[in-house]
Amino acid sequence: MASQTNAFEMAQRQFDRVADLLKLDQSVRELLRWPMREYAFRIPVRMDDGSMRVFQGFRVQHNDARGPNKGGIRFHPAETIDTVRALATWMTWKCAVADIPLGGGKGGVVVDPATLSVGEKERLCRGWVQVMWKNIGNRQDVPAPDVGTTPQMMGWMMDEYSKLVGEYTPGVITGKPVGGGGSLGRKEATGFGVVYTVREALKHLNIDPKTVTVALQGFGNVSQFAAIGMIEHLGSTVVAVSCWDRDDNTSYTFYKKDGIDPHFLMSITDQYGTIDKNAARDAGYSIEDGGAWITKDVDVLIPAALEGQITAETVQLIHPSVKLIAEGANGPTTPEADEVIKNRGIFDVPDFLCNSGGVTVSYFEGVQNDMNFYWTKDEVLEKLDTKMTQAFNSVLDMSLRENVYTRDAAYMVAIDRVVKAMQLRGWI
Ligand code: GLU
Question: Which domain holds residue 274?
Fold first, then answer.
């Protein structure tokens, strides 16, 4: 599933395109094309067998004009400084388009977390914070989970930071477990946020969500709750999900014509997102090649795995029935594929709009930590829906007004807000 696309090059190409449209000054471009600060470091960890292993860690702070840097920490064997740069850059645009007062950051460790014991994972998380604690903080840079990291890991990191600074500081990190400073609704937030944008897009396209069929890529946190939301909130039918199979080191698509049951599939999925093929087969699912999800005769495609998945080649496999692509993943579509999607008239909900529900509830989590007062799940999800709907409409309005592709429109909204904040602070 790892792609050949350099995600940071892709993020810069997307930005350059819109910078030209907006005729941005050279100095503004220089500031926004590159992260403001980058950290690359080594984390020594004592393994269970007594040996030491050294891990490569990263944190990139792209831009904090609108508020503290914000963004997840990814644990992935294929992590590189360029992936982290791209993801940090997209976080700046994501927080701006969602209109939350935060900047963009991202972190990572080159590791397959499935190969570590619980104790080793805890020591790695604490080690990451021991290196970075002076450069993170609730008024500086606030990490969160991403691919390969969990609420429990955020809890360990928050604890380590609190010990180092000498006071309980829940707001240093978000995506913590509920009961340990976490917010209700954070677990569902990214997937449900995807669904709110799909609902708004279908309204614009004049399509009844109850008639809609969906295929998803991935079966991690985003995809699971996007599938549940599509079925339970909108009454749509999800016919396919794909997942990475850790045992076979490849991916598969799980297909059921009359609709998959995400709760059942979750009950047979391990903590790293691998679905048990035998149990699925017994329950009537057909198991196909990992790339099959994109070929399905459906109305909506939701890539919710990694970056660089809809490429010049795979975009050709999209069925003529597809009317909408909702990008649950960060950077799933390459600029070459964008051209094809645009020409075919498929409506695209771009990544940093579509998946901004996660960071939006992270922001709510930080607000609740500051108040030391916690909202109900319904309150959180209602506030999330309001934010996502506003964000979607600001992008749609821009796209219609300027007659530009939705991704360009999202960039225009986001860049405008970040540039204004930089002007107000006297940076440009
Ligand atoms: N990792 C998530 C993202 O890419 C969430 C970031 C956060 O909550 O800060 O949006």
Answer: 187-354
Residues having CB closer than 6 A to ligand 1 are 70-72, 94, 144, 146, 174-175, 330, 355, 358-359, 362
Phi, psi of 345 (to 5 degrees): 75, 25
Nearest to 250 by CA among 285, 291, 222: 291
Domain match, 60 and 209 both: no
CA of 304 to the centre of ligand 1 (A): 13
What confidence tens digit (pLDDT) does each residue in 356-392 have?
Answer: 999 999 999 999 999 999 999 999 999 999 999 999 9
* Residue 88 CB partners (closer than 8 Å, separation 6+): 35, 60, 61, 62, 69, 71, 104, 105, 106
Are residues 295 and 348 both part of a single domain?
yes
Pocket probe for ligand 1: among 147, 187, 362, the residue whose CB has the most ligand atoms within 8 Å is: 362
Angle (deg, nearest 10), helices 7-22 and 26-33: 160
Q: Is the pTM of this model over 0.70?
A: yes
Both 194 and 317 in one domain: the answer is yes
CATH of the domain at 237: 3.40.50.720
Q: What tokens appear for 337 in the block?
A: 């594929």
Do 52 and 96 fall into the same domain?
yes
Nearest atom (ligand 1) to Cα of 90 = 4
Q: What is the pLDDT of residues 286-342, one digit of tens each?
A: 999 999 999 999 999 999 999 999 999 999 999 999 999 999 999 999 999 999 999
